[in-house]
């Protein structure tokens, strides 16, 4: 099961690379066309924005899995093991609540987004903003799995260290500031 999970996240990382590369190529190509030939490709403007939205929301799930989101590690690092686990449990419960609200908000907004189409591509805006389903569900599932392992004692010391930021090198800590 872990191999399948890792394979899925590897697919997401490749998808992120493709979205970023596609976005960069479309924007660069449009800049060259506009300044060099006084023309542009309208679809590339629109699609690069959508790629950016998808890149951001898919990347949020990948970053959450890797404990790469902003945290208050200095406070949690002062606590003992039980305090750290309590913070992890509380954090995951808050994330489940916020992600569930995000998912529900996407669901409520879906009829409105479905009725609107993009001006150039004609793409239903539900495809653009529907990425909220993936992000909300992804973060809820990751948090539920972590919460289950926390409550059953299956959390490892490495995971606790990742949560508190203790597994980072000096270079990685410098990148975060």
TrEMBL record:
Annotated membrane topology: Multi-pass membrane protein
The GO molecular function terms of this record are: transmembrane transporter activity
Which part of the chain is the Tripartite ATP-independent periplasmic transporters DctQ component domain?
A: 23-152
User: What GO terms describe the biological role, i.e. biological process, of this protein?
Assistant: C4-dicarboxylate transport
Identify the GO cellular component terms for this protein: plasma membrane
Q: Which InterPro entries match?
A: DctQ, TRAP_DctQ
- Homology family: Belongs to the TRAP transporter small permease family.
Please give the function described in this protein's UniProt entry.
Answer: Part of the tripartite ATP-independent periplasmic (TRAP) transport system.
Q: What is this protein called?
A: TRAP transporter small permease protein
What species is given as this protein's source?
Agrobacterium bohemicum
């Amino acid at each position: 099961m872990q191999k399948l999970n890792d394979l899925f996240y590897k697919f997401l990382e490749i998808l992120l690379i493709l979205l970023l590369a596609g976005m960069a190529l479309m924007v660069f190509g449009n800049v060259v066309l506009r300044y060099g030939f006084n023309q542009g490709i309208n679809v590339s403007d629109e699609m690069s924005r959508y790629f950016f939205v998808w890149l951001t929301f898919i990347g949020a799930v990948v970053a959450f899995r890797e404990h790469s989101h902003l945290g208050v590690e200095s406070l949690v690092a002062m606590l003992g093991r039980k305090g750290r686990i309590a913070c992890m449990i509380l954090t995951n419960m808050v994330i489940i609540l916020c992600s569930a609200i995000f998912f529900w908000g996407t669901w409520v907004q879906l009829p409105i987004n479905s009725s609107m189409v993009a001006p150039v591509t004609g793409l239903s805006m539900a495809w653009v903003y529907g990425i909220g389903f993936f992000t909300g569900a992804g973060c809820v599932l990751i948090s539920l799995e972590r919460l289950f392992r926390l409550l059953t004692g299956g959390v490892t010391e490495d995971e606790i260290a990742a949560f508190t930021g203790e597994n980072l090198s000096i270079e990685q800590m410098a990148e975060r500031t």
